[in-house]
Amino acid sequence: MSQFPDPAAADQVQIMHKKSVLELRNVDIFYGDNRAVKDVSFNIRRNRITAIIGPSGCGKSTLLRSLNRMNDFVEGARVEGELIFANENLYGKDVDPVSVRRRIGMVFQKPNPFPKSIYNNIAWGPLINGYNDSTDELVERSLKRAALWEEVKDRLHDSALNLSGGQQQRLCIARALAMEPEVLLMDEPCSALDPISTAHIEDLMFELKEKYTIVIVTHNMQQAARISDYTAFMEMGDLIEFNVTKRIFTRPAVKRTEEYVTGRFG
Amino acid sequence: MSFSSEQESIYLARRHRKAKLFALFCAAITWSGVLLLGILLYQVSIDGFRWLDWQFIDSFPSRFPERAGIKSALVGTVWLICLVALISIPVGVSTALYLEEFAGKGRLAKIIEVNIANLAGVPSIVYGILGLAIFVRYLSLERSLISGALTMSLLILPVIIIASREAIKTVPQSIRYAAYSLGATKWQTTWAHVLPASFPGIMTGVILALSRAIGETAPLIMIGALTFVAFLPEGPMDSFTALPIQIYNWVSRPQEEFHELAAAGIIILLAVLLIMNATAIFIRNKTERRLK
Amino acid sequence: MTEKQLATASAADLAAEPGKRVTINKSGIRWGEALIKSWLGLCAFISIVTTAAIVFLLLSETLKFFESVSPAEFFLGTTWTPLFEPSSFGVLPLVWGTMIVTVGAAIIAIPTGLASAIYLSEYASDRVRRIIKPVLELLAGIPTVVYGYFALTFVTPSLRNIFTDIQVFNALSAAIVVGIMILPMVATLSDNALRAVPVSLRQGAYALGATSYEVTTRVVVPAGLSGVMASFLLAISRAIGETMAVTLAAGQTPNMSLSMFESIQTMTAYIVQVSLGDTPSGGIAYQTLFAVATLLFAITLVINIVSQLILNRFREVYD
After folding, report:
1. What local confidence, expressed as pLDDT, does residue A23 receive?
2. Cα(first)–Cα(last) distance of chain C, in Å?
3. Which of A76, B44, B120, C124 is most buried (most C-beta within 10 Å)?
4. Rounded to 5 degrees, what are φ and ψ at A183?
5. Quick one: how far is CA B160 from the chain centroid?
6. Helices B256-291 and B243-251: crossing angle, nearest 10°?
């Protein structure tokens, strides 16, 4: 539920031009008594791709899900610390999780298109959020941004379930983009796809970087090295190192990071 | 202890024979159940067939078998089913949605769930007593269609709730997550995605519940559905009769002709039920094929 | 920009127009959502109200009944003549009537239902299943008054041909027909329980050289025993609550004889008898209706709860 803009609040301009769109400060995430994410702090830079890597069970997906409050749906999940977005703590008392998710979108590991037409998959999100412009343009725009338009433009009203895995995932990306999110979260988006679809999506992410901010969780180190600008390496809930990707993979500051990226474990 | 190879093969042969006999035995029993159904239907058909004509459907009950018909009972049953559907479907599906989507896993939800499971096993005559005391007497709705409909709705509500919950449960969680991630509220997600996906399963459950309601006699007896109704009800507050009541009334009479009339009424009742069940099975098959 | 356009404006668009921002705060409760949730919760609440109403109603009238009749006479007396003089309120004949019909029905339905379930889950091909399953559903969907008719016009005459001294209204006829009625229930629920047994268990037993008979009786049925037993209990509970078939077939004479050839009266048949007659409300006769109904309700409730406990207790076996 957005308020009307306050022209007198010139400091708001600062928010839009700040380098960091999302700041994590001492974030702890608990599942009941189990502390899955421990005291994590780093910043997500605007219009960059930030990758979170680490061995299985290190808490990277948990952390990602907390960025758009999807952890709210897990019984017993609790977040402490601050996640600052648009000058608010995402977990503040007055914050409405539904509005958070309009601004921070997500693409999941396994493509999950709605059992509806391609057209309705994309149009539904904006429509229920009050969109009243041309949906045809919206659908075309979103599909083009996800590099799927050419392949489906003649069958927009076919069921989305008839698409291949890679196409479905690009549809899910288009669907998330239709909401015009400030940040796009991607939870191992290619792990269920074949190498060719994976390459398509990685190319896509380079293009998206210009307009959107992307945070991607991946267990594929090479992928992180290829596409991301910044990388966070986590292990067992701790943030071991956060740095420019090039440094993480060539001259990491922490020994444990070096052991992971050179494949000595994980 | 070791067997000689001859003893071993005899023992083995005996075990195999036993297995075969057992399989045959189970098959025979099952098929005799089918046979039994056949006998039952055949019996009813030959008893009632000669009474089955348009005059039978179009006449009111009478002391004279030749003139008796089930018009009032048929109309009463149709009225009843429409009213029951109008009441029980919204309440039942809403309850199922509440329990599956909105209630969480707390103690309250568990209590409601156990409660519904128990209500499903309460004998129908107890519902009749409930209906008598609350709808007929306390709310002064008298022995009307609405009393009957409310009582029947309470009876089949647990069935609808349980069937709808099963249907809602089959909707994959990933669909909900996709909707939430687009900034949708719980109800928006439920309305746009969960309900449409579970609709066929819900419909099947509803149809089966309604067909159960059509056949129930005891609750209607309790709330006072009349057994000799020579008029058609015109509104929910009118008194009425229904197919099972009329059949019961005819069966209870000593004369042979009334038994045959009852059989004719049963044929009509079973025909209605058959159509409803076939619809439910058809819907179910259509959905199963779609998911494959 | 309108509020709606603002909601979906992109970050870049907003950056181009300084001073505008999109907040992520709550601005009040979502009224529509709250209203809908209240309606749904209200519907769910109806089920609790129903149970409360049943319990309250039954108990309050029963307590009134026990003001005139001592519980000892009710539960231990063996003569039931509440509507005549001299009136006697021993409920045991009704319980006895219900019991012999139920036991008879169980003897018929449980072995055959289980055998059918075994056939369906272990031996039958898909084609056969596709025939038999709908047949079972049809049998289960037949209204009870039809079974009552069947008892009166087919079963009883057939029985009288075999046993000449059987009465027109008798318990055996009712037991047979109720047995047929609950058979599909036993078959379907047990079939579900047996199918839930993992294939790997069966394969392990076959790999040891067991025959199908041995696998079924010593591995599958024991593994699915909780579901099978729950199905038995549910079927018995259904038989106890059965009204129309017994009313039509078994008659209206409460007695405690051991013979199944005679007319008896079940609890349910008594309730129907009272409500078909002209019973003034508030009188002792009216109250007997509730006393018997409460007993019926209590018995079926206990059986249902026990069957649920059995199901829940042993369900974790496979997980």
Report:
1. 93
2. 55
3. B44
4. -125, 140
5. 10
6. 140
DSSP run (H or E) holding C88: strand C88-89
Q: How many CB atoms lie within 10 A of CB A59?
A: 22
What are the tokens at C300?
């079926």
Question: Computed from CA positions of residues C234, C239, C241, C243, in that sequence, does the dihedral angle turn out positive or negative?
Answer: positive
Neighbours of C, requiring at least 3 CB pairs below 8 Å, are A, B
Q: What is the pLDDT of residues C198-208, one digit of tens each?
A: 888 889 998 99
Question: Which residues of chain A make contact with C25, given a CB cutoff of 8 A?
Answer: 1, 3, 88, 94-96, 99
Q: Which residue has the tokens 């459950």?
A: B205
B196 vs B282: which has the higher pLDDT: B196
Tokens of C140: 């289960």
Q: How far is B150 from chain C (nearest CA, A)?
A: 12
Sheet harboring A77-85: ordered strands across?
A88-89, A77-85, A20-31, A34-45, A238-244, A230-235, A49-53, A213-217, A183-187, A104-107
For chains A and B, CB pairs below 8 A equal: 56
Q: Which uninterrupted H or E stretch holds B199?
A: helix B195-215
Q: What angle do CA A169, A175, A181 make, to 5 degrees?
A: 115
**Distance between CA atoms of B189 and B41, rounded to whole angstroms?**
47
- Using the structure block, give the residue that is written with the tokens 């392949």: A151
pTM tops 0.90, yes or no: no
Residues 6+ apart with CB under 8 A from B168: B96, B97, B100, B101, B194, B198, B201, B202
- Mean pLDDT of all residues in B254-280: 88
Q: Please identify among residues 63-82 of chain A the ones whose CB lies closer than 8 Å to any CB of chain C.
A: none
Cα B245 from Cα C63, distance rounded (Å): 32
CA–CA distance, C178 with C101 (Å, rounded to integer): 8
Q: What is the CA radius of gyration of chain B?
A: 25
Task: Confirm if A210 and A157 have CB atoms less than 8 A apart.
Answer: no
Q: Do B183 and A101 touch (CB under 8 A)?
A: yes
Taking residues A128-151, report their average pLDDT: 91
Q: Between residues 24 and 63 of chain C, which touch chain A (CB distance below 8 Å)? A: 24-28
CATH superfamily of the domain spanning A17-261 = P-loop containing nucleotide triphosphate hydrolases (3.40.50.300)
Bigger pLDDT: B54 vs A70:
A70
C-alpha dihedral sign at B223, B225, B226, B230: positive
Q: Is the Cβ pair A128, B175 closer than 8 Å?
A: no
Look at residues C235, C252, C109 and name the one whose alpha carbon lies nearest to residue C176: C109
CB C306 within 8 A of CB C313: no
Residues B203-229 have a mean pLDDT of 87
List Cα–Cα distances, A126 to A139, C24, C130, in angstroms. 10, 17, 46
Contact B269, C146 (CB under 8 A): yes
**A230 has which bridge partners?**
A50, A244
Q: Which of A106, A112, A128 sits opposite B188 (nearest CB)?
A: A128
Secondary structure E strands in A9-110:
20-31, 34-45, 49-53, 77-85, 88-89, 104-107
Q: What are phi and psi of C258, to 5 degrees?
A: -85, -10
ipTM higher than 0.85?
A: yes
Homologous superfamily, domain C88-315: MetI-like (1.10.3720.10)
Give dist(CA C98, CA C86) in Å, integer.
Answer: 24
CA atoms within 13 A on the CB side of C73: 15
